[in-house]
Amino acid sequence: MKTGHGTRLYINEVATRDGFQMESRFIPTDDKVALVDRLGTLGYAKIEVTSFTSAKAIPALRDGEEVMHRIARRPGVVYTALVPNLRGAQRALESRIDEFNIVMSVSETHNLANLRMTREQSFAQLAGVIALAKQAGVPVNVSLSCVFGCPMEGEVAGDGVRGWIDRFAALEVQGVTLCDTTGMAHPTQVQAICESAIAMCPSMDWTAHFHNTRGMGLVNTVAAVEAGIRRLDMSLGGIGGCPYAPGATGNVATEDVVHMLQCMGYDTGMDLDGLIAAAAELQSLVRHDLPGQVSRAGHRLTRHAPPADFNDTVARARARELQRQMEARP
């Protein structure tokens, strides 16, 4: 395993979209705005603020326009959102979006279950969104779901993944996110797929997106970085999930991943203490425990006070040592 040697990585936050859409409790608009504003001060490269899907489909994000209009835009932070179709794209443009994040699955079954369309139908629809974005001068990122496996089909053919990358590259999108949508990825697979993708389109902005369903989210992140990925999606506190994968947990927790990468010597540009405080705030908003671990335990050099009777213990230990030394004298 390599050390970071100061290599710069770029962190994208998805809790406010990917996470909130899975919450049963509606997070009030004021709280969403306040959280995004707080996150904007912590060193993120990108924050996925909301989704411009219909309110009927994702009621948890029905206030997307208001949130986008009210947030404080921090210089250097890209404020993106999920844009599913032309209507959503028009709403996103009216909300002064910095980037379109469009989504389709490389698995036919998952795409039908999730988007109610075949992959070809999705591609045709998204090609129209990309054309509108180009006309408006807005960059587009494509999130490809189930790259590392589908919960209904199993393994996904690498040739198929590369084929979809080729087709979106031909439309001149700025970036592609390789998504482990349901937490099926493993490290050797991650390294091989990421290396292959980067070799295909070296100038593309590549991002990796992992879930921690089987406890491999952190090691998969390391594998992706060692393969050359420099942009990473993650979710504060580890919230999120997938409705089409029973037992699937949320995304890798931002504070856990940042802590690990900083320990390894990578430059994430992130304020870890600020992340831990923000995770505590998030827990109060969602009103349930978060799966993130560093937000509970603190960073590895967190200091704790000794037990209350520690001084007495020290005094007794010293007395015993003095007695031992006296008894050992000739």
Please characterize this protein's 3D structure.
- The protein has an eight-stranded parallel β-barrel, surrounded by eight helices.
- The chain is built from 13 helices and eight strands.
- It starts with 9 loop residues before the first strand and ends with a helix.
- The protein has helices at residues 15-19, 29-39, 64-70, 86-94, 108-115, 119-136, 158-170, 187-200, 217-227, 254-263, 272-286, 294-297, 310-328; strands at residues 10-13, 46-51, 78-82, 99-105, 140-145, 175-180, 205-210, 231-234.
- It has one domain (10-304): Aldolase class I (TIM Barrel, Alpha-Beta Barrel), CATH 3.20.20.
- β3 (78-82), α4 and β4 (99-105) form a beta-alpha-beta unit.
- It is 44% helix and 13% strand.
- It has 330 residues and is an alpha/beta fold.
Number of discrete helical segments: 13
Helix and strand element order: EHHEHEHEHHEHEHEHEHHHH
Number of domains: 1
Side by side, the strands of the main sheet go: 1-2-3-4-5-6-7-8
CA radius of gyration: 23 Å
Secondary-structure-derived class: alpha/beta
Per CATH, the class reads Alpha Beta
Instruction: Specify the CATH homologous superfamily.
Output: Aldolase class I
| Biggest pleated-sheet summary | 8 strands, parallel, barrel
What does the overall shape look like?
elongated
The unreliable regions are none
Helix content percent band: 40-55%
CATH topology term: TIM Barrel
